[in-house]
Design brief:
The complex is a heterodimer of chains A (457) and B (255). Chain A is built from 5 helices and 39 strands. Chain A has 457 residues and is of the alpha/beta class. Chain A has 3 domains: 205 residues, Pectate Lyase C-like (3 Solenoid), CATH 2.160.20; 153 residues, no CATH class; 29 residues, no CATH class. In chain A, 42% of the residues are buried. In chain B, helix 2 packs antiparallel against helix 3 and helix 6 runs parallel beside helix 12. The mean pLDDT of chain B is 87. Classes of the chains: A alpha/beta (457), B mainly alpha (255). At the A-B interface, helix 4 and helix 5 of A face helix 1, helix 2, helix 3, helix 4 and helix 7 of B.
């Protein structure tokens, strides 16, 4: 074992010894010249390098020192990698040409393997980082920032992956592009700890990208939120979907997604928290839905979805659907609208909760009915339906709703939901008001309120 | 006019009901803020309470107070005073008393717990509603000789505005659901002062949902400074028209 380790060490030493490093300064040689040499590592020092499109055609490490700027000058691509085993690190890349014909990118890799793009800044590019037919790549710690002033049709995707596999996209920031992170035909890959925000279209967009996982990402203030489609076996955990507002904006839109695991995510302040359209066997567990317009929109063409241990609080609507037949299981979620009781004290309500309100159904049919939101009439309508369910699908109910939010059971024990207290105070206060009205009524008949100390006294 | 206003206000200050009204509102607001950890949620509950309670109590109180004051009013009418100024002074005095009660009962807690745009909107619309229903109460009371009948009309008005009107709107939506009815519904909803106030507050609360499909219609109508202005002009008209009606009716009334 020790001998093996020594051998490896020796091999590394010799390879380091044989590695040839060359440096480039502005004014002393160009990157292209350095690439034409045989050196393995090219250190690029501070400065601006305007060399048009730089094509890397052999395995090499490009290392930026003090943020050297590589400016493509707006003639097309900036850095094109067409060889395997290439590392790009510490570079500032800008100056792509906006084009309707070509997908010009700041850093583009085509049909290669073992690529590492680490800690670069890609600024105001058309496409940012573009990987096509790449396997085994690492895209980490990059900041891909588009031009916030650009129109949507002058923007393209921040991090764009096409027909890739085994790619890790970690700790990147993608802003002001069309889609922040875009994946199509990308399999067995991982997107983690990334932040996408203020993109004109989607924060994250993927299609036909099977067996991928998405963890601890933050998607906020994107034009249409996150939309993912036509994919099997997706795992999305510990992500945050925030402030995605607009007529067609979704925290997370799932279309034709099969066998998805959506766990421990936060959905806060979105027009629609999560939409399921034609999804089969989606497992939605341990998520939190807070202050969304619609927390969950569940289209009736989705089958066998399971919602478990999710917390719903402060949403205008917790759930809506567009059909009568709902093949979805709800069990053990927390609903702040739940009015039931827990006689056996097992933490679960003894009567089922129906998250679908009549008003939600009404607005599904007639969106403009929103003008009646939270009016007394609508409250009465919902109360009536809760007592005698006739209009909402009978199947859609949570048989064992949690009495307290899943993760804060102890501290929040005494605290109940808004409407519960709203109603509880409405009843006594209305009673008090009635008594006062009656009292006044009675008092004016024989005892005028106006005393002798009045204006004429 | 200002003398009548002053003495009516002094009398109102001694009125147990006005004090009770203020204390009730205070109890409700503080209770909601204490029980609910999230201030925004408490504000939403408070809005619902205020939108139902304030119109009812303002209306009934104004009507009953007018009848209690009736003999004094008749006494004033024989003095060399303009009748218009008597009614105007009484309306202003009752309005001031109710407004002070409202600002005391709801204003203090809101400022203390949740000085947010939602809170300010709630205070503003609540104050406007107080005056609107005070004016309506005056109008009803002046027109009727029988106090029981006036209270009955007042209650009917309240039920109509808080419940029946919305039901009618919903019925209208269902009946015409296959026609482009959106441009009609929103202005119709805004015709009712309670609905208008609710929409103004909800526009701040339910923004996420409202910006959905209806967003365009909503934002066009209520969003922006222009929409706000239109809304407050509408509320102002709801105040001034009944008040003007009351003044006019009283001026021509056979006492």
């Amino acid at each position: 074992m020790l001998r093996a380790a020594l051998l490896v060490l020796l091999a590394t030493c010799t390879s380091v010894a044989s590695a040839r490093v060359c440096s480039v300064w502005p004014g002393s040689g160009t990157i292209k010249q350095a690439l034409a040499n045989t050196c393995d590592t090219i250190i690029i020092h501070t400065g601006t390098y305007r060399e048009g499109t730089i094509t890397i055609e052999r395995p090499v490490v490009l290392l930026g020192q003090g943020w050297p700027v590589i400016d493509g000058g707006g003639v097309g691509e900036v850095v094109v990698v067409s060889a395997p085993h290439v590392t790009l690190q510490g570079l500032v890349v800008r100056g792509t040409m906006v084009s309707d014909m070509n997908d010009n990118a700041g850093i583009k890799c085509i049909s290669v393997t073992d690529i590492r793009i680490i800690g670069n800044r890609v600024e105001s590019c058309f496409f940012g980082i573009y990987l096509s037919s790449v396997t085994h790549a690492l895209v980490a710690d990059n900041r891909v920032i588009g031009d916030p002033m650009a129109d949507e049709n002058r923007r393209a995707n921040g991090i764009h992956l096409w027909k890739c596999s085994h790619v890790e996209v970690l700790r990147n920031t993608a802003m002001h592009h069309r889609d922040g992170i875009y994946l199509e035909f990308v399999t067995d890959s991982h997107v983690g700890n990334d932040t996408t925000a203020y993109n004109a279209r989607y924060g994250l967009h993927f299609m036909f990208s099977h067996r991928d996982s998405y963890t601890r990402n933050l998607f906020h203030d994107n034009g249409a939120g996150v939309a993912v489609m036509f994919t099997r076996e997706v795992t999305m955990t510990d992500n945050r979907f925030e402030h995605n507002r607009g007529a067609s904006s979704y925290g997370l839109l799932l279309k034709e997604i099969n066998d998805a695991h959506i766990e421990r995510n936060m959905f806060v302040d979105n027009t629609v928290g999560i939409l399921l359209d034609g999804c089969n066997r989606a497992n939605v567990t341990d998520n939190r839905f807070q202050a969304n317009g619609w927390a969950v929109k569940l289209f009736a063409n989705s089958t066998a979805a399971v919602f478990e241990r999710n917390g719903f609080s402060g949403n205008t609507f917790d759930m809506t659907t567009n059909g009568d037949l709902v093949l979805t299981t709800l069990k053990g979620n927390y609903w702040d609208r739940y009015r039931g009781y827990d006689l056996d004290r097992d933490g679960r309500g003894d009567v089922p909760h129906r998250p679908l309100s009549v008003f939600a159904l009404v607005t599904e049919r007639m969106p403009y009915a929103m003008v009646l939101s939270r009016s007394l009439m609508v409250n009465l309508l919902d109360q009536g339906e809760r007592l005698v369910p006739t209009l909402t699908p009978a199947m859609l109910q949570d048989t064992g709703p949690l009495m307290h939010p899943p993760d804060r059971s102890g501290e929040q024990h005494a605290r109940r939901s808004v409407e519960q207290y709203g109603e509880r105070t409405l009843v006594p206060s209305a009673l008090v008001a009635a008594i006062m009205v009656l009292h006044t009524w009675w008092s004016f008949t024989d005892r005028p309120i106006l005393r002798s100390t009045g204006p004429h006294g | 006019m200002w003398k009548v206003y002053k003495y009516t206000l002094l009398d109102l200050a001694r009125n147990r009901f006005a004090l009770g009204y203020a204390l009730l509102l205070l109890l409700v607001s503080v209770g909601l803020f204490m029980l609910e950890s999230d201030n925004t949620k408490a504000l939403i509950s408070l809005t619902q309470v205020v939108l139902a309670l304030v119109p009812l109590l303002a209306l009934i109180f104004t009507i009953i107070y007018f009848y209690n004051q009736y003999e004094f009013t008749v006494l004033l009418a024989v003095q060399p005073l303009r009748r218009q100024s008597i009614t105007r002074a009484q309306f202003l005095a009752i309005g001031t008393a109710l407004l002070v009660s409202f600002l005391f009962g709801v204003g203090f807690p809101v400022v203390a717990y949740a000085p947010s745009p939602i809170g300010w909107t709630l205070l503003l619309t609540g104050a406007a509603l107080t005056l609107v229903f005070c004016a309506l109460g005056m109008f009803i009371a002046v027109g009727q000789r029988d106090r029981a009948k006036a209270v009955g009309i007042g209650l009917a008005t309240w039920v109509f505005m808080v419940l029946v009107y919305d039901s009618l709107l919903l019925w209208l939506m269902f009946s015409f659901s296959d026609r482009p009815i959106e441009p009609v519904i929103v202005p119709l909803a805004a015709l009712n002062p309670i609905d208008l106030s609710r929409i103004l507050v909800m526009l701040k609360v339910d923004l996420a949902a409202l910006l959905g499909y209806t967003g365009a219609v909503y934002q066009k109508f209520f969003g922006g400074a222009g929409g706000m202005l239109v809304s407050f002009v509408a509320l102002l008209l709801w105040m001034l028209l009944p008040a003007w009606g009351a003044v006019r009716t009283f001026a021509r009334k056979d006492l």
